[in-house]
Specification:
Helix content: 25-40%
Number of helices: 9
Order of helices and strands: HHHEEHHEHHEEHH
Distance between the termini: 53 Å
Radius of gyration: 22 Å
Number of strands: 5
Structural class: alpha+beta
Largest sheet: 3 strands, antiparallel
């Protein structure tokens, strides 16, 4: 009989241990975030633990992982097991392919969508002073970092863009409230992740001549 099927037939201390093992195995096997409802769905109706029990199991696992190279974090899509950022440079050497590097144009566009959403392509261009290339919108859409959430009620009904849950998950955020404030970003000691190295020089805001951004 599987562990989940016998979960309520064992003594309390063992039941907590088995529940923790099930939650840990599920998070490792999933390869992505799992919500509380998804974790609860692993159990039969008459064997299902309470939400509080599952949350307690996650908290216990987080404590177990405190000194490990892996950690269990909560993001917008639920909880996931991931490599600690401090360990990532060494683990990344397992793969020959280098992480994608995005241009300043793409990052500026994504940032404006994140902080000003919902926002139209034209509004992004007005702020940046340059035309947003179709390739940038395509890249952000294909990565499922942005999506169309409606249309502005003006002539032409331009699409309104907003960020997605996958955007939050990728950057390890539970909600948009965890984005750094604009004051923090402007601070001289604010650090940008090396993998998001900006390739395009900062443009002078006085240059308002529209042009297409080059590269992604």
């Amino acid at each position: 009989m599987c562990a989940c099927a016998s979960l309520r037939r064992v003594k309390f201390s063992t039941r907590r241990k088995v529940l923790k093992q099930i939650v840990e195995a599920a998070l490792v096997a999933a390869g992505g975030p799992l919500t509380l409802d998804q974790l609860l769905a692993l159990f039969l109706d008459d064997e299902r633990p309470s939400r509080a029990d599952v949350l307690a199991a996650i908290a216990a696992l987080q404590e177990d992982y405190a000194e490990r190279g892996l950690e269990i974090v909560e993001v917008a899509g639920g909880w996931r097991v991931q490599v600690r950022a401090s360990i990532a440079p060494w683990v990344a050497r397992l793969w020959d392919e280098r992480p994608p590097r995005y241009s300043r144009a793409l990052l500026e566009t994504l940032s404006l969508i994140a902080y000003r959403q919902p926002i139209t392509r034209g509004e992004i261009e007005d702020i940046r002073g340059v035309a947003v290339s179709t390739q940038i919108v395509k890249t952000l859409t294909e990565r499922e970092w942005i999506r169309v959430v409606g249309h502005r009620d003006v002539p032409g009904r331009p699409a309104l863009f907003a960020t997605t849950r996958k955007f939050l998950d990728y950057f390890g955020l539970r909600s948009l409230n965890e984005l750094p404030t604009l004051a923090e970003i402007r601070a001289p000691d604010f650090l940008i992740d090396e993998e998001l190295t900006l390739e395009e020089p900062i443009r002078d805001g006085a240059d308002k001549k529209p042009r297409d951004d080059a590269g992604v």
